[in-house]
Amino acid sequence: MEALLRFSGVAARKARATLVAAMGLAAGMALAADAPPMPESLNLYAGQAVVHSVAGSIKRVAVGSGGLLNVKVLGTREVVMIANAAGDTSVQLWMADGAQKTVPVHIVQGNTNQVADAVRAILGDIPSLGVNEVGGNVVVTGHDFSSGDMDKLAQLKKVYPQILIFASQNSVEMRPTVMMETRIMEFDKKSMDEIGIQWDTQINGPSGGLIRDWKTNPYFAIRQDPFTEIGGLKGTQSYFGIATAITSRINLAMQTGNAWELATPQLSARSGGSADFLVGGEIPVATTSGFGNVDVEYKPYGIKMHIEPVVNANGDISTKIETELSKIDPTITVLGNPAFLTRRTNTEMNVHDGQTIVLSGLVDANATKQFDKVPGLGQIPILGALFRSRNFQANRTELVIFLTPHVIDPDSERNKAMIQRSEQMKSDLRDTAGSEIVD
């Protein structure tokens, strides 16, 4: 009886082992059946793992570059491949029946399907957008992209290097236009205090917004409270600041003889563009090359202004302002060429439409000391009148530049007013001359 029980236990264990083996074989056959057959060539992306089956039994496998691709045989009929990095390699298979099979493998950096979907999700509202997967790359085509769309595309390319950009930006994109209303004035220094330009005293009324004191030295001082005392202009210091609602005070100063308007140029630039203004002249500077040839280069001098405005969706304006005043210094010459004395401001400010930016301190009374020594300076617009001013020579007045940006378009009231004023000037000129001299 005991022997019979031992025999029964052994038989049971053998039966269980046979059942497990049969289940494993069935699972292996199921996996082999589910795995797709090995193609003639493979396109993978880095990090991708695939399983393929082959007809017959695999005896041996080799890969051309183990750094690009890892290969492992499962059983005798399946191959697992894991792509590590972008590149090209191949897998060599030796079969039990003596046959051989070579499978080229091309690996790209990322999943092109996911990259294409990301491009469509972010830029899908562009009517001309085209997204195509070509050879492991994602080709983006289209036309009339806005500058913002091109920026988005550039950021996508940083994340997905396989993006190839063949899209073009709209060269005539409709952007807001900024008209920089400029008033270059000679101001009595006592009157400057009254409208808050020099900021020696507390600012009165609604004038004042963001106030900053800029100096022609390595230090840029910012006062925390714009409605309290801010350092004045002395020596070679210059002022840069913003003040609102000062137009009426400027006009009052002009009516009382405390301010004189030297010029009122108007600069216009598209958002993201630039505009320049130069009043002065050019002086020839001769240079000698190594072969004895004499080249002549003209150096500009006078008042130069460069603006680069950008307008956001709310109509707020961020603008770069470069202002330079250069004058000839005849006391210093190099090879017969005079030197230049230059004062320059370079800053960037955020303002609202209609706020006034003030620049001051670019010219001091010391500039008039060399005035009579340089022929022709008296004929320079703005500077000639300024240097001839006895009040300026006596250091009682100062050159002040007011910049007021406005966002305009063809239908804006300000633009219509400018057109109307231009037509009125043409009409007055026609009446004076007696004929049409302006087309």
UniProtKB/TrEMBL annotation:
Q: Which GO terms describe its cellular component?
A: type II protein secretion system complex
Q: Where is this region: Disordered?
A: 417-439
State the signal peptide span. 1-32
Give a single Pfam family match. Secretin
User: What sequence ranges are listed for the domain Type II/III secretion system secretin-like?
Assistant: 255-409
Biological process (GO), any one? protein secretion
Using the record's annotation, list all stretches that form the Pilus formation protein N-terminal domain: 39-101
Biased composition range(s): Basic and acidic residues: 423-433
Keywords, ordered alphabetically: Signal
* UniProt similarity note: Belongs to the bacterial secretin family.
The protein's name: Type II and III secretion system protein
Organism this protein belongs to? Luteibacter yeojuensis
